[in-house]
Amino acid sequence: PMGASTSTLRKWTKDNPAGSALAIGAGVVAATAGMVSLYNLQKHGQFRVFLKGFSYPDAERKMVTDKYHGIPVVDYYRWLEDPDSKETRDWVDKQVKLTNSYLHDECPARESIMKRNFEVQNFEKFGTPFKAGSRYFFFKNDGLQNHSVLYMQKTLDDKPSVLLDPNSLSKDGTASLGVLDLSESGELLAYGVKHSGSDWTTIKVREVETGKDIQDELSWVKFSHISWLGDEGFFYSRYPTPKAYENKDDKNFKRGEETEALANHRLYYHEIGTPQSDDVMVMAPGDPKWLVYGEVANDGKNLCIWMSESCDPVNTVYIAPLKGWDRNSPIKTIIKVIDNFKAGYSYIHNKGDVYYFKTNYEAPCYKVVSFDIKDPAPDKWTTIVPEEKLVVLESATLTKGELLVVKKLRDVKNEISILNLKGEVIKDKLDMPEVACVSVSANHKQDDVFYKFTSFLYPGTVMHYDTKTGKTTKFKETKLDGYNPDDFIAKQEFYHSKDGTRVPMFIVHKKTIDQKNGPHPCLLYGYGGFNISIKPSFSVSRIVWMNNLNGILAIPNIRGGGEYGEEWHQGGTKTKKQNVFDDFQWAAKFLIKEKYTKPQKLAILGGSNGGLLVAACANQAPELFGCVVPAVGVLDMLRFHKFTIGYAWCSDFGNADENEEEFRALRKISPVHNVKANIEYPAILVTTADHDDRVSPLHSYKYAAALQHAAPAGGGPPPR
Q1: Which residues of 451-482 are buried (b: 16+ CB within 10 A; e: fewer)?
Q2: What does the alpha-carbon distance between residue 169 and residue 444 come to, in Å, rounded to a whole number?
Q3: Could you tell me the pTM of the whole model?
Q4: Cα separation of 379 and 149, whole Å?
Q5: How far apart are the two ends of the chain, measured CA to CA in Å?
Q6: Per residue, what are the HEC states of 465-483?
Q7: Dist. CA 123–CA 125, nearest whole Å
């Protein structure tokens, strides 16, 4: 449930100048310890804090004491956890007013930077196509559209037509598409709509031929797949109606602002043309905190049911035969193939009772295996694609003709090969640059394979590979007027962290920048969690920053991520979470040592789990950085699990209530609990969004209040 953002800068709109950097909706920006202007970075050669006698809004310190394993911990800002209280609302309003006064009055270059961002964003962007039935589908953004539009066409050479334009779903652009899937014939589209950045989703159904919605509408869907059973209906997951919404006539009342912990995720089947109240519950997990998903097997005769207890890449495997099932009643026969959380399994294909899975069982970098679900003991498995040490097998997708499209990650660079179901190589490597991030689209009923590659310097090319002919052709290519990738350089360096671990880092800048003539302005971005790999990707805002402000972009692939498999991930979790912060701080030290930059010119940015990363590093080593931007961060590490889906993150963070060792580790890193007085902090910009129901804004509120209380009189530290 926690996602990574690979964008370093987001487009701010004139209608919402204080909007969240990483979430749609009415945002809140709290000015803490002064603010930073990129203009002043360029003009003065360092980050400067403009002291204008900031008078921070008062945040009353109300002592609430909790005991963790006999140890008292004071929480001064528990009252900020209530988003509906008048106290919280008033405090937020004052923070926004203060922040806007700085952004509008003290940043003379802000309008020109924003204008340039809009200018360069205005180019066509294409998604990876996919095929269903007799049609091809793909997303395209004309340039400045808030959301990409779903197009369709009969052949690869036809003129595309619009199937669904998310920009028409709301006047202010705050409605967006979520999960979607096409029926077996490709004639019906089930699609989810989310509002104001909330994860709550409403599923609707559209006729592809007419482009019109039918009456079906499903509410309270969250963290769900959609998997069709023919054209008659589909499986999806939902929660019961939250308490905050009971007896409310307004369907959008508070949606996304509630903080209560989620419980009782369940799998349902919806028959087209019937009301949601008639939907059949297929599976209710034994633990109210578990998540459950359904996926119809390629043969259409069986349902694969997955349950997960956390964000760790582990799940159960249940198979439910669908032959003879009365769709108006629960499924009676469910085979428990894997009934534990020791490893993760992703369905690829099946031939009768023999199933093919991608798994990390005794393979931290993953492998592909097959086995009979009636005799699933690991010693009976057949290995199709063996694990390759330190090379992550990210996906294996079946095409018509029983070919596997295998995508791997080698030193944070993607590669694709084609194999048969015996594991024999049909094509060693599909055409793409050596350094690329790749998305793949394939289907067991189609000969077509589409893949899109992008990198730090290339905005994206979509390729089409025909498995019948073996021919590869270019389908779409994104081009930017006036942009020449040859003006920039992207390279991968390796450095050693505090404990000697070798860590890769991408560094990108204009070719005219001479490292030896540094230091230079530098933006260090990181995430480091939840098995998520931060791969080379294109961001026009990064290009603007590097091109116009002579900046350097640095992205270290720190532990906690998935760049080198599950061992790399686990090396940055729970009591080992400090490794993540050490990796990031040693990346900063490497950049400083090699004269790329110096602390006064070094900004760090991270969102969600990355918000925790940069805030913790600002507490631990404020002398290393000139500017810190924790976006929608998880910042109260003792209480995160008590809100919305936070309990699922205990697999990465640990749980202060249940484990004393984890409590002691969490207390040491929790940004809210480690802000210190009389410390010269860097300039810090905290961003959040009031409809973020994944990482509640209460984290940012409490952190900002703690920082502002600790700041010296006058509103911030002296200029650095």
Answers
A1: bbbbbbbbbbbbbbbebeeeebeebbebebee
A2: 32
A3: 0.90
A4: 48
A5: 38
A6: EECCCCCEEEEEECCCCCC
A7: 6
Angle, CA 234 vertex, CA 228 and CA 235 arms, to 5°: 110
Convert the pLDDT of each residue in 435-475 to its tens digit: 999 999 999 999 999 999 999 999 999 999 999 999 999 99
**Would you tell me how many other CB atoms lie within 10 Å of the CB of residue 705?**
26
How far apart, in whole angstroms, are the C-alpha atoms of residue 49 and residue 718? 7
DSSP secondary structure, 276-341, as one string: GGGPEEEE--SSTT-EEEEEE-TTSSEEEEEEESSSSS---EEEEE-TT--TTS-----EEEE-SS
Tell me, what amino acid is at 538?
F
- The whole-angstrom separation of Cα 273 and Cα 276 is 9
* Overall size of the chain counted in residues: 720
Exposure b/e, 318-329, CB count within 10 A at least 16 = b: bbbebeebeeee
pLDDT digits (tens, 9 = 90+) for 88-138: 999 999 999 999 988 888 888 888 888 888 888 899 999 999 999 999 999
Taking CA atoms, 53 is separated from 105, 292, 712, 714, 715, in Å, by: 14, 53, 11, 5, 6
- AA letter at 482: G
Cβ atoms of 270 and 244 closer than 8 Å: no
